[in-house]
Structure formats: C-alpha cells, structure tokens
Amino acid sequence: MNPSSRVDRDGDGAGNVWMSHPSLSSMSPIRLSSDTEMSFGERSVAAAGAAVLSAVLVNPLDVAKTRLQAQAAGVPYYPYEPYVRRHIVSLGSNTIFSDIRCSTSCTRGGIFGTEMVCPPDCFQYKGTLDVFHKIIRQEGFTRLWRGTNAALALAIPTVGIYLPCYDLFRNWTEDFTTKNAPNLTPYAPLVSGSVARSLACIACSPIELARTRMQAFKEFKSEGKPPGVWKTLLGVLSPLRNTSNLQNIQNFRVLWTGVGAQLARDVPFSAICWSTLEPIRRKLLGIVGEEATAASVLGANFSAGFVAGSIAAAVTCPLDVVKTRRQIEKDPSRALNMTTRQVLVDVWRERGMRGLFTGAGPRVARAGPSVGIVVSFYEVVKHVLHQRHSSP
C-alpha cells in the first residue's frame, strides 16, 4: 500500500507533512516549509516586536503581582523616615492614624493639628484591583507602568534570544528524534523550551533584577523622577563600593541575585508552557486545513498561548514568590547567601499555602495574554515573511 500524507500546520505559517503507513506505529514530521530557512535575525526581529507589544500591555498586572508579593515579604508601603515625619495618633474612638494623607480624595482621613491623616490600611493592598486603585489614587495612573522601560529592555533581548533559540532547538530535536528515537519526539518542545529559556534568563538576569526592584519599592519623594534601570542597578552595587577591586569584581555577581530562583521558575514554566501549547495549536491549525491565513495563525496561536501560559503561571507561582523575595533583599551578603529551598521553607512557615501563591491572580492574568500575544505575533510575522519569501 502506498503511504498517505496529510498536511498539518504547526503555527509557523507553513505546513509539516506527516507521512503515515498502516505498518507504522507513529507518524514522523518532515518539514517542507521555509520555517527552517528563516534566518536567526528574522526570528529575533519578529520576537522583539512581540515582546514590545506584550510588555506594554500587561505591565500593570506585573506591577500588581510584584507589589502583593513584596508586601507579603515585609516591604512597607506607608510613608516612613527620612522622607516624612511619622507619628502615631489617636483620633475619635481609639482609631490609629499615621500623619500622611493617602490622597486628596480620601474620605476616611481626619485632621491632626494642621495635617490631614489617613488610617494605615489606606496603604495596605488587599488584592489586584485594590493595588490598581491605590496606585492610581496615591501615585498616579502612569505608575501602573512603572518599570516598563526595564520590561522593554528585558523583553527585547530575552524574547529575542528565547523564541528563535526555541525554534532552532525544537527543529533540530524533532529531526534528531524522528530519525533515531521516534517515541521521544513529543518531548522535543519540553526540552527545547527549557534550554532556550535558561540561556535567556542567565543573559538578562540583571535587567530582571532592576525591573523587580523598580516595581516593588514605592517612591515617597515628591520631587524628581524615580530611578531608572541604570540607577537601580547602581543602587544594588552601592553597598559594595568601599571593598577592594578584587572583591568588587567578585561582588558583581550580586547583579545576578535570584537567577537560581528565576531559572527554577522559568525552566519548568517553559517546559509546561511549550508542551501544552504545541499540541493545542497544532490541533487548532489542523482544523483550519492546508491554506492557513494570518488570521487563523493568529487565533490558533493566541488561544493555545493563553491556555498554556495560564496553566504554567499557576503551577510555578511559588517559585515566582521566591524570585521576588530574593531580588528585593537589600542586604547584599544575605541576598547572595539565600537559597530557593530556604526561602520556600520560610514562606511556608510564615504564611502557609496562601503565602506560596501570593500574587497568583495577577500572575495568571498577566501570563495568559502575554504568552498569547508574544507567540501569536511572532508566528504571524513568520507567516507573513514566509508568504513574502514564497511569492515569485
């Protein structure tokens, strides 16, 4: 009997031909598309564009997630010395107030002497929507995009490394396993996603550290702009300036604070995400048929990315809590000596299961759309480039 074939779209804008035969127990992918012919530069440009779009749209959710996790770790969000004078006063029926008004529109404040004062809980976050409300009221609407410049500086190189490397590793792994170990082919996305994410995390860890700190710490100074990426990183290094040159070189590793926790979070995130995303999007694109359009590529990849990103974000939330705690630690010696296991145990003892999933809501709400946007934008650009290359 002659082999039969069918075309299955894998989301890269062109088909993979799967050859099947009754005597074969599995089907092996044979690429006939220009996906393997795309240059690393073209892949990087497509990925960088996706990263910019995603970073801008979902940054407020990232701020909310980081603030909730930092608050649980003990970061104060009420004014404190040396920026403002702080007194504890009793007004009315033994209600405790601090000497600062959270906003001019607050109706819960009172007057002490010549100053307007608000209850301490005006500065405590109770959930994602409460973070949005209080940041807008106390700091201004634009602070929801605090750290966007760091997110962009991080997203472009991270995704520019991550997605192209994933594509190349996946293609190579699938080709290798198809020829030598067909039963292992379904695990190609898992392995490729883990390796690609590890490379991206290690390369961009200092920028991730700056972003976490910029989003976690509240600025109480009314004058001037809050520190940007460069000043934030200089602030991380400032306690080490008085050490010897040799120690300074060694202590530059503080810029990679939390990279272990970040890898512990992102490697399983990528493994779960890609191993979930690939079968979903291939099935969706298989329904579309041989002539996939940009719209169908967009819809299938966004849907698959949304589901996969949400699942991966929920599962890896405890490791995200650990990463945040390690990166907001201001004592350099303590930051360098903290371990992921130690922080996990500390969080469990302090707050139990609820503590391990602090910020899970905004993290999942951020990751689903973010993965969907990045993957769908990236694949649509690849689809357009493929059509352009294929046209006479």
From TrEMBL:
Where is it chiefly localized? Answer: mitochondrion
Q: Which SUPFAM superfamilies match?
A: Mitochondrial carrier
Annotated region Disordered: the residues are: 1-20
**Keyword Lipid biosynthesis found:** no
Task: Give the matching Gene3D superfamilies.
Answer: Mitochondrial carrier domain
- What is one GO biological process annotated to this record? mitochondrial transmembrane transport
Q: What is this protein called?
A: Uncharacterized protein
